[in-house]
Fold:
Amino acid sequence: MAEDFGITLPSNWKQRFFTIWTGQAISLIGSGLVQFAIVWYLTQKTGSATILATATLVAMLPQVVAGPLIGALVDRWNRRIIMMAADSAIAGVTLIVAVLFATGNIQVWHIYVAMLLRSLGGAFHWPAMSASTSLMVPKEHLSRIAGMNDTLQGVVSIITPPISAFLLMLLPIEGILLIDVFTALVAVAPLFFISIPLPPRIQAAEAGQAVKTSVWQDFVAGLRYVAAWPALLVILIMATMLNFLFNPAFSLLPLLVSNHFKGGAVEYGLMESVIGIGIVIGGITLSVWGGFKRRIVTAMSGLIGMGIGILMIGFAPANMYWLALAGIGLVGIMNPLANGPLRAIFQGSVAPEMQGRVFGLISSLAALMSPLGLLIAGPVSDALGIQLWFVAAGILSVASGAVMFFVPLVMNVEQDRRVIEAAAPAGIATAAAEAE
Structure:
């Protein structure tokens, strides 16, 4: 038996957690197949960059607009039920779209609505799964689980495009959509039989002993919780700034390949494959090694490594495409080493009652930075060159990682988990104190 956050974990926690994790992994592959098929359909059907951009924006809206509020709901409700409802709703929406394709009634606006609803389901699912992980896995293994998740993401990014393209030659698009419906049901099935520990607040609520608060009060409490924890606030601000530069940089990668390196689809595809392979290598490394004893050391080291890789891309001359290829491979390897330990820190340090809100806030800020960054990156890159954006992202990444080593507030984030009681209403402050 192990105990975390005052919750005793059973000796068979691995069997329980990985049964759920495997179902979620299979569902993720199905979602990747659908994403590729839908984007390719819109490309072939319309040939419109505006439609593709609109589809991307629609998929971002739930996370940008409702992420923190959804997090507040995740912290109020049973997370196992949330995951079951979210996956089932996504499967239902996909099934409806498959019927529309099969009957020849599909319209572009149908796809927009479906993408919005699927994204809304994902906006509930991700914080619920992330917050549940910390209640099912001992703290000392959270970094390894984060590494496995990054490995899975890398594998999915590598295998789903060619598999989906191959399936499109054999099946109509509704056939691929039905595959996603099946994989979603595979993810839901284990949740009928395996329980997920409830945070103390939800236990108290189900027993009728909790102090009743509104969703808005919970939302505000989440913001105050983060604001009252300086180290957590600094890390979130740093991550937001990095996303502001990172996301547009990699969105501009096709133009860098074609305009600067004078490459084509093969060269661009090779870079995408190399970063995916790098993420798999980095994820496996983290899952086996687990990182340094202090997770924040692993995260900041990975951040510096990512910055070096991005600088290699930014400074690569037009005749040294191989240098950019090596750089993006380094970015891929270092990405899990930077992000995985940070997620593990949040899962292992943030009070269980607050994790939905914190993860919702992280998701919202990350999604918000992408369109804002692109809005600025386009004109800046047109005027000063695409490489400048990569150089700026690399410098900020290296500087942020290096400077944080000299900020005790951040380096001691795992040891300093004190939360000001005034940051939360009655019932939440107590739970935060239990995380000491």
Q: What stands out?
A: The longest helix spans residues 13-46.
